[in-house]
Design a protein that fits this description.
single chain, about 200 residues, mainly alpha, 10 helices, globular
């Protein structure tokens, strides 16, 4: 497959995370969760903030991999599929993908412009057929909303364009998953989601 994460736009939160592999970090979070009973108490904002970039990276890579495979199966070239998939995942995680593309390389801009009308429908089609993708997106966006509101203040976050984008996505998919987002359960959900796609990394 192509370089499917070349133009993903993960946010920068200013949190320092020790140099480990993504899988080691997420597994370590799960182990801490289990050892200290974090299912049975609320996580602090600091704990969520520390874990969030790891969750975000794992989810975006997994979604991008799945969407790229779908596009390749539909006949798109590998490199084109990767670029379309990256923007679809940016969209579904609340990122302003069009603004991000404006700062991308001419090559990426030309590919995205040629397939602009297909980006959002492609990721929505993936979610329509895959419940696990819908579920992970919904709980990721709920946790993202809580975290950003806490970090920036509710009034500031409420005026942020990302908040509006997330609200629209949750309006489409949230009703199917009414349970409140729980960071402890979400940590395990992310690990399981990744393991289904990359089982050899957890063997």
């Amino acid at each position: 497959m192509g370089k499917f994460c070349d133009n993903l736009q993960p946010a920068s939160y200013g949190f320092h995370i020790a140099a480990q592999s993504r899988e080691q970090k997420i597994t370590a979070l799960f182990q801490v969760n289990h050892m200290f009973g974090l299912f049975r108490r609320k996580w602090t904002i600091g704990e969520i903030a520390e874990a969030f970039p790891l969750w975000e990276r794992s989810i975006t890579v997994c979604l991008c991999t799945k969407l790229e495979a779908e596009l390749i199966a539909r006949g798109f070239p590998n490199e084109t599929s990767g670029k379309i998939a990256a923007q679809g995942v940016n969209y579904i995680t609340g990122v302003d993908w069009e603004a991000g593309v404006s700062n991308a390389s001419p090559e990426i801009k030309s590919v995205v412009e040629a397939h602009k009308s297909e980006i959002e429908p492609a990721i929505r089609a993936l979610l329509a057929k895959d419940k696990s993708c819908r579920e992970i997106v919904v709980y990721f966006l709920r946790i993202k909303t809580v975290l950003f509101a806490a970090l920036y203040g509710f009034d500031v976050w409420a005026k942020n364009p990302m908040q509006g984008r997330i609200y629209q996505i949750l309006s489409m998919y949230g009703r199917e998953f009414p349970e409140e987002a729980d960071p402890g359960k979400f940590c395990v959900m992310v690990l399981n989601f990744q393991h289904k796609l990359f089982p050899q990394k957890h063997a």
